[in-house]
Amino acid sequence: MKKLIDFDKEGFKKEVITNVKTLYRRPIEEATPQQVFQAVSYAVKDDIIDRWIATHKEYEKKNVKTVYYLSMEFLMGRALGNNLINLTYYDAVKEALDELGFDLNLIEDQEPDAALGNGGLGRLAACFLDSLATLGYPAYGCGIRYRYGMFKQAIKDGYQIELPDDWLKDGNPFEIKRPEYAVEVKFGGYVRVENRDGRNYFIQDGYQTVRAVPYDVPVVGYGNNVVNTLRIWDAEADQEFCLDSFDKGEYEKAVEQQNLAKTIVEVLYPNDNHYAGKELRLRQQYFFISASVQRAILKFKEKNSDIHNLPDKVTFQMNDTHPTVAVAELMRILMDEEGLEWDDAWDITTRTCAYTNHTIMAEALEKWPIELFSRLLPRIYQIVEEINRRFVLKIQSMYPGNQDKVKNMAILYDGQVKMAHLAIAGSYSVNGVAALHTKILEERELKDFYEMRPEQFNNKTNGITQRRFLLHGNPLLASWITDKIGDEWIVKLSNLKKLKVYATDEKYQQEFMNIKYQNKIRLANYIKEHNGVDVDPRSIFDVQVKRLHEYKRQLLNILHVMYQYNELKTNPSYDMYPTTYIFGAKASAGYKRAKLIIKLINSVADVINNDASIKGKIKVVFIENYRVSNAELIFAAADVSEQISTASREASGTGNMKFMLNGAVTLGTMDGANVEIVEEVGEENAVIFGLRAEEVMKYEREGGYNPKDIYNNDAAVRTVLTQLINGMYSSDDPDRFRDLYDSLINEDVYFILKDFASYVEAHRKIDTLYRDEKNWAKMVMLNTACSGKFSSDRTIEEYAKEIWNLKKVKVTLD
Ligand code: Z2T
Is 812 labeled as catalytic in the residue annotation? Predict the structure, then answer.
């Protein structure tokens, strides 16, 4: 498999030298690493372009069905290394650069992450694009070209500071602006009716318009010449309108127009699993959806004469409810521009749109005030009203006289537009992202919708791409695996099961654990350089990296660290294996409690890391600015994977899969995809604790539980809680963490105290297991060996067959 794509090393070196010369008028010896990065990227792009053109020629020739993955977020990370990997000449380029006197790793470090996403949902979209291209499925990713992506996190005095992510400042060598595909998007104004040939047409007037201009980013498939497109939209002022305004002397209007365009794509909202209800966010949604859907229809019409065939050629997959205005926008285009009647348009729309749900967290549900929605999108609102009217009629005919059903399922209710209901009404498929999550949707959250149309519901357990998170992120393990079982795992991860036979062999155990050790040294060096903290690579690396959210329970983790520290200090017989607790997490800028938890973690780190009396048994490290690029280092170096969400709350999780793939043991609750991880690897090769989802939901139905019972009965818990408010970790301000204390004592909605004892026990078990070196090695090797299911290639095959009905395409270069 290695030599899938030819590589001309001398030619490549020449091209890099030429690029440095023409871009910077410099000889290669004097080029900065950033300049070399640019020069190498342009050389790589040259190879990509031919395949990109060939791919689209093939798609057009075959007039294939295409999926449009509509997403507000694509958390792509860096492109250069990934593109080299997928072009199958990463090692060759490394060699070529060596010969020119540069280290590819350092060159890769010059590239900013493309952080156009928050966390799991955005990274999933990026993994899906990688798998779609690798499997040869025709696909577009459609999103927004945010001027500023996910903020850069700095830690100052233990507090999170948000800094702007100026990711485009040096230019983005891989993107291509496509002004020839620009379209207009209309906001505001009013709707009037015009009668033409005896049919009423609805016309939006008095609107403001924004020009949507696409930038195309290549998505390279692994070793197969396929290059798909991520199309991200930029907003520009409408030039003609502006000129017109200048003529009339309406200078202010013109400037206003400029600003409207600029602000739309200015910044990614940094909320994970949280709906903030900002008008600008709705503008962003309609902006990229209108542009994407318009362009998709125009493209369809180039090759197809009958709009009724749209569902045979196009699927719009909506990544959560954020793109759900697509349902109404498609209706608008079909009726107002293609001249179809309602029933026809609705039939086409509901055979073209599909919806993925990513959370059951109530605070994430999008419910737009009708006042705002109708003012910003008057024609779209009219259409939503009619969708709702007909949908409510359907509910009433199925459940005569049952007002509860209308209340629970209507799209318009209580002065709000409920986007999830619109998404379900307008889609032919509704899927959850892990088996447990889908079950909870069917049995609880979306029960009424499931009962109305059970065949609409399906599960698609998430996955991750092994190309980035093993082949690129963990080169030592990748080549060890290839030595053992060949390299087909790169495109067929289920092959990893062939590693099972090595898991009990001492020689191979040593090789595997030595690779883990090398990766721990690599991470220790990163931590030393970025945190100034020394960590011992021989200690257990216990890692929790993910967005900071109460339901993910980083607080449970750090409370346990505080507990262990107490044991070390007060219990002479307490013995623990040296452990390094590693955290990485961004908190949404407005999420006070989450930010306080970050401060607590850093405060605990300060105290414990500087207490010589515990002889380095515990170290706590908070890795600043956790993101895709440093995640690759972190997963490779982890021994223990903390997946400790309150059961039922984490829809799937995908970090859990990246840890497993890289040979870490899951310490987790029976939540999201953890359930399936345990199913694959076996209970004895994971450490599971805490309430089960059923139990959590039962408590909730019965009004919660009483955390004071635990406070009163568990002395260790009492001590730890008291330390939140006695200044032990906040001597300058003993009340700093009182909010956390109060929330735990009074409500504890995430069952942290309830699960505490069980979590302590789980950690004891990890400690014991780790000391048994051979068994531990076997466990981690089996985790890698059993992770095949969690490739996004498997996930995408399921979407392609069961939802999208896509056909694979082969691309050859002539
Ligand atoms: C997000 O990252 C997720 C769900 C959301 O619901 C929003 C965002 Cl930004 C609206 C996550 C889930 O929390 C996680 O469990 C899941 O693995 C991931 O989406 C991908 O499905």
Answer: no
State the catalytic residue, choosing from 421, 547, 553, 619.
Answer: 547
Distance between CA atoms of residues 739 and 542, nearest Å = 27
CB atoms within 10 A of CB 161: 13
Dist. CA 354 → ligand 1 center (Å)? 17
653: left (phi over 0), alpha (psi -120 to 50) or beta: left
Query: Is there an atom of ligand 1 within 6 Å of 226 CB?
Result: no
- Distance separating alpha carbons of residues 179 and 650, to the nearest angstrom: 41
pLDDT for 232: 99
Listing DSSP states for 126-174 in one string gives: HHHHHHHHHHT--EEEEEE--SB-SPEEEEETTEEEEE---TTTT--TT
Residue 501 has what DSSP assignment?
A: G
321 within 8 A of 366, measured Cβ to Cβ: yes
Write out the DSSP string of 698-746. Answer: HHHHTT---HHHHHHH-HHHHHHHHHHHSSTT-TT-TTTTHHHHHHHHH
**549 classed as catalytic:** no
539 ligand 1 Cβ < 6 A? no
Q: Atom 4, ligand 1: which residue's CA is nearest?
A: 358
462 lines ligand 1 (CB under 6 A): yes
Regions in the chain scoring below 70 on pLDDT: 1-4, 239-249
Angle at 269 between CA 265 and CA 274, to 5 degrees: 145
> Rounded to the nearest whole angstrom, what is the distance from the C-alpha of residue 441 to the centroid of ligand 1?
14
Residue whose tokens read 């196009």 = 314
Query: Using a 6 Å cutoff on CB, does residue 272 contact ligand 1?
Result: yes
Closest by CA to 796, choosing from 464, 321, 488, is 464
Residue having the nearest C-alpha atom to atom 9 of ligand 1: 272
CA distance 599 to 618: 18
Active site residue 552: yes
Domains of the chain: 1-62+83-112 (no CATH), 64-78+117-428 (3.40.50.2000), 469-694+750-796 (3.40.50.2000)
CA 544 – CA 554 distance, rounded (Å)? 8
E strands, 482-554, are 540-545
| CA proximity to 108, closest of 166, 154, 40, 49 | 40
Query: What is the reported pLDDT for 249?
Result: 62
pTM for this predicted structure: 0.98
Tokens of 646: 């309150």
List 358, 379, 418, 421, catalytic entry:
358
C-beta 71 within 6 A of ligand 1: no
Give the span between the Cα atoms of 408 and 411, in whole angstroms.
9
- Output the pLDDT for position 454: 98
Q: List 367's β-bridge partners, or say none.
A: 418
* Ligand 1 close to Cβ of residue 651 (< 6 A): yes
Q: What is the pLDDT of residue 1?
A: 44
List CB contacts of 739: < 8 A, sequence separation 6 or more.
592, 593, 596
